[in-house]
Specification:
168 residues; mainly alpha; Arc Repressor Mutant, subunit A; 2 domains; globular
């Protein structure tokens, strides 16, 4: 019964992490189940040095990344002659809630169009709150690679958003 309560409490947030990393609903569901099975089998290893959620999140992120490594997806690099534009953020929220929702959906779509490596670093850094040293360790890359992938992801995201805005 306690396992079901833990699953019900954490599954939605952990699914979102899996989905952001795998970018595929069915793969995310599989990874989520594997992560929970692993967590429940190893619950004795939980030392309460952090919250259960943080411990589970680490398992979920590692499982998701290992799943992607198994698929042998390689990190993609952008051409070096890309413009040096950066994403800018607006401080104000649009007055029209429908427009705001549309913008969120557009951003989600753009993030999903990023190359896999860029999307993973961007998600881990911006959405999951990992720093570049942690991302480097998780993804088995150097810290400088994590930073450059993040910067390239921002540039690529800006380009994709510009293209989506012109087509919508």
């Amino acid at each position: 019964m306690a396992y079901k309560e833990l699953y019900d409490l954490y599954s939605k947030a952990m699914f979102n992490i899996c989905y952001r990393i795998t970018n595929d609903r069915y793969e995310a569901e599989d990874v989520l189940q594997e992560a929970f099975v692993s967590a429940f089998r190893n619950i004795g290893a939980f030392r309460a040095e952090s919250s259960f959620g943080a411990w589970l999140k680490k398992i979920v992120v590692n499982r998701s990344i290992n799943h992607m490594k198994k698929k042998r997806l390689e990190m993609t690099t952008l051409e070096e002659n890309m413009d040096k534009a950066e994403i800018t953020y607006r401080d104000e929220v649009p007055d029209d809630p429908e427009r705001f929702t549309h913008n969120i959906e557009l951003i989600k779509k753009a993030v999903n169009l990023l190359p896999h490596g860029y999307r993973m670093v961007l998600s881990l850094y911006l959405l999951e709150g990992y720093d570049h040293a942690e991302i480097a360790q998780i993804m088995e890359i150097s810290e400088s690679t994590s930073k450059s992938q993040y910067n390239r992801a921002k540039k690529k995201l800006k380009i994709i958003l510009a293209e989506l805005c012109t087509t919508n």
